[in-house]
Amino acid sequence: xxxxxxxxxxxxxxxxxxxxxxxxxxxxxxxxxxxxxxxxxxxxxxxxxxxxxxxxxxxxxxxxxxxxxxxxxxxxxxxxxxxxxxxxxxxxxxxxxxxxxxxxxxxxxxxxxxxxxxxxxxxxxxxxxxxxxxxxxxxxxxxxxxxxxxxxxxxxxxxxxxxxxxxxxxxxxxxxxxxxxxxxxxxxxxxxxxxxxxxxxxxxxxxxxxxxxxxxxxxxxxxxxxxxxxxxxxxxxxxxxxxxxxxxxxxxxxxxxxxxxxxxxxxxxxxxxxxxxxxxxxxxxxxxxxxxxxxxxxxxxxxxxxxxxxxxxxxxxxxxxxxxxxxxxxxxxxxxxxxxxxxxxxxxxxxxxxxxxxxxxxxxxxxxxxxxxxxxxxxxxxxxxxxxxxxxxxxxxxxxxxxxxxxxxxxxxxxxxxxxxxxxxxxxxxxxxxxxxxxxxxxxxxxxxxxxxxxxxxxxxxxxxxxxxxxxxxxxxxxxxxxxxxxxxxxxxxxxx
Length: 497
Ligand code: RVP
What we know:
Layout: E1 14-17, E2 34-35, E3 39-40, E4 48-49, E5 53-55, H1 64-73, E6 78-79, H2 85-97, E7 102-103, E8 108-109, H3 115-125, E9 129-133, E10 142-147, E11 167-168, E12 175-176, H4 181-191, E13 195-199, E14 205-210, H5 211-220, E15 234-237, H6 242-252, E16 256-259, H7 267-280, E17 286-291, H8 294-302, E18 308-310, H9 320-324, H10 330-348, E19 350-351, E20 354-357, H11 363-372, E21 376-379, H12 381-384, E22 393-396, E23 399-405, H13 415-418, E24 431-435, H14 440-457, H15 463-469, E25 471-474, H16 477-491
Parallel strand pairs: 5-21, 6-15, 8-9, 12-13, 15-16, 16-17, 17-18, 18-20, 20-21
Antiparallel strand pairs: 1-25, 2-4, 3-19, 7-14, 9-10, 10-11, 13-14, 22-23, 23-24
Bound molecules: ribavirin monophosphate.
Ribavirin monophosphate (RVP) binds near residues 58 and 379.
């Protein structure tokens, strides 16, 4: 037995001291891009993201819809592996099909359907426009568009057919398959349409272009896209069925894989990494983890991991520390692993990026994690709160929440992640709710502005510079408590009396 001299500390126990901010340090110069996979020191990584955020490998978080939205913002999602191989591969394929700009039309209706039916369809999908095709399929004959502004539940009979209120194809602009994205966008603006249907020579729908995508593209400009301009997406794998799962995910087009395990310091992970190198060389990229110290990092880096994920027990829905007594405060874990990453880079000339996974409760924790040396962050709770996550929106006492459950909860029963054999015997996660927070696009944009602002105060314009120069200070227990109390009084003024 040995006891480490340091205390296990979390992000909330640190603050950043400002460094000198000079004229070169302006928001437009801040570059938050990060390497995702290992590379030679001084050379670029083969896979980079403009925004250092990836979504957690969780059923409550990473759906194709969230993956597309996050890639549009410059991050990357990891589709979860706690589902049949074919289902996971289809989710990956759905993201890859969704070519930037040209969307597979997923909200379609027949002209004979009722206004009530199309209303329900749009409400369930949280969309405004449906495409009308003869058979209601995404590849049917294009007949028109119907949007929420074409009918009103109080003015129109919901039993009437879609045909009575749709805008027919004859009065709409369409474009032939093969049109360039920039020409399609010009047409959208000229025709003042929100949707531009792309049709083949027989009049069949092939895809659609949305005005909102154009606006998002202009807003974010740094989408995560592959060489064919398709959105990038990652996928989780486990140490059990990897011989079948990995080939299926690679065939579906996954850009990067990640071993999904609560404790990654194991020979099973090394076996999977060897399998990938033997089968695919460096053409398939795979991260491993999770680890909480330098030994775990070194083991996985030497076994060939493309990035290493850090964190045990810090997830907001995680009870592993209570159940098994295993884990480490996320800040201490990162500090230890960062030291080893840098030593490994000096010795081998190979930089293996670190992903800090879990434990981000406030946006400021993201800045602290990056200051500690994380290259990018994996977030569960953060993304679960948004429209784009796959979980249900529920109202409790007039307040909106999204469901959010851990992979080790009875609901997910992700036995492969917790090494509990074929079935989950005891829970390592909880099933709960997170306050609903609206659109991913709006929130990511605000969060990035905050991180940028922190970096400017700290005199940094790039993440490597931030890693080098950030100055952190520990917060005393007394000031931590005072801060909590300030927040309590601010949120509930009645507590003052
Ligand atoms: P958070 O962002 O704090 O919600 O944490 C998300 C992370 O928590 C995931 O990426 C994963 O590592 C971990 N997790 C997922 N499920 C569970 C569990 O049930 N214990 N933990």
